[in-house]
């Protein structure tokens, strides 16, 4: 199982901030596609990702127990 | 003193407390950047803001920014506190304190910190206007992207 975190408008789009899904050993890119199929209202184009709190590429493989966060363009400060 | 140098809080920020964290006997200067909530952006009136963070990662990114500053200006010492939740006009959203032996580095490192915060720290703000709301985010704080389709390239952050 992996944990998925959503923030800002992504969180509002699906009405959840956190998911647990059985997608261990898939790549970040594959999980993005799965999310978009699961939630057609969700667009993850140009959304960055972090695995275990570090920025990740679409090619990175997500392991059992990892936390994958979708990071919309930030606007702090 | 055990207070962390980097914090995300949901209560008003005590500026003096952030300044105190960078106190150093060798410091000849401390710069403080105080980011506040602006009412008018391009003529549009903000009623209030809501900030959200991914706190664990945001702290890591603050630490990374501090590391980058250490590499450029080894004498500089940095502390950052960012507030989240509901903020009203003129409330303080972020405080950055930098101390260094001489003022120039304190100014430069402080500006570097706020620019990097706007690029890599996972914090988002939602604008509440008279006629609606919107999550803002293009890393430069200019263009809102209502449907999750930011129009800028984001490749420089690998």
TrEMBL record, chain A:
Keyword Nucleotide-binding: yes
Gene3D superfamilies assigned to the protein according to its UniProt record, in alphabetical order: 3.10.20.30
Keywords carried by this UniProt record: Molybdenum cofactor biosynthesis, Nucleotide-binding
GO annotations of cellular component type: molybdopterin adenylyltransferase complex
Molecular function (Gene Ontology), one example: nucleotide binding
UniProt xrefs under InterPro entries: Beta-grasp_dom_sf, MOCS2A, Mopterin_synth/thiamin_S_b, ThiS/MoaD-like
Pfam families: ThiS (PF02597)
Recorded metabolic or biological pathway in which this protein acts: Cofactor biosynthesis; molybdopterin biosynthesis
Superkingdom of origin: Bacteria
SUPFAM superfamilies from the UniProt entry: MoaD/ThiS
Cross-referenced CDD domains: Ubl_MoaD (cd00754)
GO biological process per UniProt: Mo-molybdopterin cofactor biosynthetic process
Subunit-structure text: Heterotetramer of 2 MoaD subunits and 2 MoaE subunits. Forms a stable heterotetrameric complex of 2 MoaD and 2 MoeB during adenylation of MoaD by MoeB. During catalysis MoaD shuttles between the two heterotetrameric complexes.
Similarity field: Belongs to the MoaD family.
Function of the protein: Involved in sulfur transfer in the conversion of molybdopterin precursor Z to molybdopterin.
Name used for this protein in its record: Molybdopterin synthase sulfur carrier subunit
Classification of source organism: Bacteria, Bacillati, Bacillota, Bacilli, Bacillales
């Amino acid at each position: 199982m992996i944990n998925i975190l959503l923030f800002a408008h992504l969180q509002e789009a699906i009405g959840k901030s956190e998911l647990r899904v059985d997608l261990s050993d898939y790549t970040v890119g594959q999980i993005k596609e799965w999310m978009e199929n699961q939630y057609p209202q969700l667009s993850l184009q140009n959304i960055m990702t972090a695995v275990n709190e570090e920025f990740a590429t679409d090619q990175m493989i997500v392991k059992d127990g990892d936390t994958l966060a979708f990071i919309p363009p930030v606007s702090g400060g | 003193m055990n207070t962390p140098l980097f914090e995300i809080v949901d209560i008003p920020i005590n500026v003096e407390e952030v300044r105190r964290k960078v106190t150093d006997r060798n410091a000849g200067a401390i710069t403080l950047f105080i980011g506040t909530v602006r009412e008018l952006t391009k003529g549009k009136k903000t009623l209030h803001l809501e900030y959200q963070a991914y706190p664990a990662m945001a702290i890591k990114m603050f630490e990374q920014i501090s590391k980058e500053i250490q590499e450029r200006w080894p004498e500089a010492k940095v502390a950052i506190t960012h507030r989240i939740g509901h903020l009203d006009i003129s409330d303080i959203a972020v405080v950055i304190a930098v101390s260094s032996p001489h003022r120039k580095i304190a100014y430069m490192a402080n500006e570097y910190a706020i620019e990097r915060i706007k690029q890599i720290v996972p914090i988002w703000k939602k604008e509440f206007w008279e006629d609606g709301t919107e999550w803002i985010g293009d890393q430069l704080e200019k263009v809102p992207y209502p449907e999750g389709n930011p129009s800028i390239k984001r490749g420089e952050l690998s």
